[in-house]
Amino acid sequence: MNSFNSIIKKDWGRIIALLSNYLHDLDLAEDAMQDALESALIHWRKNGIPKNPQAWLLTTAKHKALDKIRRARNFESKKKDYLRLLQLNESNNKEDFFIADERLRLIFTCCHPALAKSTSVALTLRLLGGLTTQEIASAYLVSAQTMAQRIVRGKRKIKKAGISYVLPEKDNFQLRLGRVLTVIYLIFNEGYCAANNTKLIRQSLCVEAIRLGTILLNLCPQESEVKGLLSLLLLHDSRVKARFNSQGDFISLEKQDRSLWNKLQIKQGAELLKSALGQKSIGSYQIQAAISALHCQASSFKKTDWHQIVLLYEELLKITPSSIIKLNQLMAKSHIAPAQDVLKELNELEEQLLKYHPFYVAKAELLVTLKKPDEAYRQIKKALRLCQNSTIKSHLESKLKLFYSGIE
């Protein structure tokens, strides 16, 4: 039933979105969809996959929802309303700011500011990505019960707060879109560099984030920051195969085999970035994508345009002031400026980054350049105490053995 699984993966989010829009009840929509899938497994095995499986699933799910409503005590009082909601609305909305896809409404519902970001991530993966509660729990290293409670609380809050399954008004669209982009980026980031896991990369989350970004771009083709985010994800993901060796050990950017980078993704990311920048509405994701593009397009680590990267980080800091972004800028700057000067600037960030292990790794690298291996050793030790990812910890332990052997 590979074709069955591919259909479900492709159309889960759209059908759930349609049902949610009609029913205004996420639990009922999910239950109806699950019932429809059970029916599909029986009927499709016997009669084959229908010509229009998406329509079959939607129609069946609607009937399943109606059956559940009929069994409810208050069906008669709500019968007219539910029957009206269950009718497909084929009419076109004539407003200029209407985007005709229910998935976009559901994305904005899942990412409503009233919900915690962790809840938004879980709901987005569950309702639009079609991931099971267990899959989401495994990805974020919590129990299935904890994740199930998080999802249930999110659904309840949507229902209790009366959050509408509609797009925000035009004046608020950009503000809410930023939340949506953040959630998709968080999903990708957890897959690309897991904070707490034995593996550094969980490709399924990266793939899902790119898929959601692609859906969002199809729904909002004129939004430059959507293009910027998708460009960034593609460019980052293009390097994934070179980030670890066959034993699963982490490989830094400097030592990666660039022939393993995905050239098609780099091309796609660069084209999206060019299109976004051409709209002359520059945002943080476009700048981050531009930085990633410079890394991807450099023939070697040494030939990277560090001057341009430092300037781009300066622009990014104007939009999104952050000590982490400043740290990244300083590490780029270390390739073109005296290590002592960079270290002085880096030390000014320590109070804000006391619990951020890459800060101590960056400091150690500068101290090695300054031929102070004993001080660098102590910084790596601090990083090891803070790091929660076993792959990165193993990489840091290798640094200790390689550079600071015998120093305590």
Describe this structure in words.
There is one protein chain. Helix 1 packs across helix 3 (53-71), helix 5 packs antiparallel against helix 6 (117-128) and helix 6 (117-128) crosses helix 8. This protein starts with a helix and ends in a 5-residue tail after the last helix. With 408 residues, the protein is mostly helical. 68% of the residues lie in helices and 0% in strands. Mean pLDDT is 83; it is low at 88-100 and 195-201. The chain contains 19 helices and no strands. The chain has 4 domains: 2-85; 101-220, no CATH class; 222-321, no CATH class; 348-408.
What is the topology?
Elements: H1 2-23, H2 26-47, H3 53-71, H4 75-85, H5 102-110, H6 117-128, H7 133-139, H8 144-160, H9 170-192, H10 203-219, H11 224-237, H12 263-278, H13 284-297, H14 306-319, H15 323-333, H16 339-347, H17 357-369, H18 373-386, H19 390-403
Helix pairs in contact: 1-2, 1-3, 1-5, 2-3, 3-4, 5-6, 6-8, 6-9, 7-8, 9-10, 9-11, 10-11, 11-12, 11-13, 12-13, 13-14, 14-15, 16-17, 17-18, 18-19
The helix content, as a percent range, equals 55-70%
Count of structural domains: 4
- Give the amount of beta strand, in percent: under 5%
Q: Rg, please?
A: 24 Å
**Roughly how many Å apart are the termini?**
59 Å
Element pattern in H and E: HHHHHHHHHHHHHHHHHHH
Low-confidence stretches: 88-100, 195-201
Major sheet: none
Number of DSSP strand runs: 0
Mean pLDDT: 83
Alpha-beta content class: mainly alpha
The rough form would be described as elongated
Number of helices: 19
Assembly form of the protein: single chain
